[in-house]
Amino acid sequence: MAEKKATEKKVAVKKTATKTTATKTTAKRCATKKAEVVLNVNAESVGFRAGDVYQALAAAEKALSIQEIAKAANISSEEVYLGIGWLFKEGKVKNEENLITLA
Length: 103
Known about the structure:
- It comes from Leyella stercorea.
- It contains three helices and five strands.
- Helix content is 39%, strand content 34%.
- A hairpin with a 4-residue loop joins strand 1 (7-15) and strand 2 (20-31).
């Protein structure tokens, strides 16, 4: 059975000229071979990762593997998966022979 990964919530306080607002961010820790990666799982962060993945695929002009996308975009493979999920939902990418390509 797979182990449950620890999820912790952080509260970031953002000060504005008139009031203080708090936003909740969920950070998920993923263990990798090299080091532990901390992922900020919120709409803004995942959207940026989707943009990184899209730009890497557009620049390559061919289908890439997860590892190739991670290397081209200079992000972790976990972040690539987040970005791909976002792009799949929007219909921007497709799976082609176990490689990811623009739709």
